[in-house]
Amino acid sequence: MEVATINRAWRRTRRPQGQPTRGKTAANRLRRVDNFLLLYDAPLIRRNNGPYVGAFFVDLGYGAEPFTTLESAARLRRTNPQLRVLGVEIDPVRVAAGQPYSDPVTCFRLGGFNLPLVAAQNERARAVRAFNVLRQYDEGEVAAAYAELAHHVLPGGLLIEGTSDPRGRIWVANVLRRQATATWAAEVLVFSTNFRLPSDPAVFQPVLPKNYIHRMAIGEPIHTLMEMWKAAAQQTLPERSWGERRWFVAAAHALYASGARIDLRRRWLGRGYLVVGVPFFAMAERNVPTSR
């Protein structure tokens, strides 16, 4: 079906839910998000059987230029050459800007949180990446946006939603798993750094996702986590003489020792990912795999 036909048909029946973002983007801004996703659940990206045949990876709110969608398509297809990738924007001008880059497995469509998937063709999403999208909304609107997205994602699929700095040097994201009941289960909160900025936990506070950024108050779990991380960073500050990476890893181990649910595997910490289980402190036992 022609892209223009899909857009016209979808617009007649449903209006895009959401607001245009500022649209600013940069090449490779979300490279580390894709790399994280491949480490976190490569089988989800690789799967091409059953309901996952033709299921999309969706880049929601890609901005004024289609950089992030095209980069993700190239990056993720190293794992799954057949992967279909869909860039979704609420601004028709931005959708038009992406059209010249469309191909049989990459497309750009007009839409919002109610993803523009064709029900008659049984189109579904396997994963949705929504970065720097919900930042502009009120906190009370986050749940409704999540709920709408859940209707379009296959059971077992992922939503990775968060905020990055303009160059993607640091970001923080929620990772949620779509349940059979068309709801989301929060799995982890991820803090990412490429070590170009100090490994001080304070640098992450401005890029906390919308559901956490206004919760930095005494008694809130995110406030407790951040304060514990700051204390762990101070405790391990001498490690910084060996570099930001060494300090980041040492602080993560100290944070774990203080009671936070940190995944201490080298595959995460060595690459600059602090992966925190949700809830942050409900740890029944401590089996710490460090071999990978």
Top keywords for this entry?
Rossmann fold; 8-stranded mixed β-sheet; 9 helices; 31% helix
Task: Provide structural commentary.
By secondary structure, the protein is an alpha/beta fold. The chain has a domain at 3-177: 3-Layer(aba) Sandwich (Rossmann fold). It contains 9 helices and 8 strands. It has an 8-stranded mixed sheet. Strand 4 (125-131), helix 5 and strand 5 form a beta-alpha-beta unit. Helix 7 (221-235) crosses helix 8. The longest helix has 16 residues, at 31-46. The radius of gyration is 19 Å and the shape is globular.
Q: How confident is the prediction overall: mean pLDDT?
A: 91
Largest sheet: 8 strands, mixed
Low-confidence residue ranges: 284-292
Task: Quickly name the level 1 CATH class of the domain at 3-177.
Answer: Alpha Beta
Q: What's the CATH superfamily of the domain at 3-177, by name?
A: Vaccinia Virus protein VP39
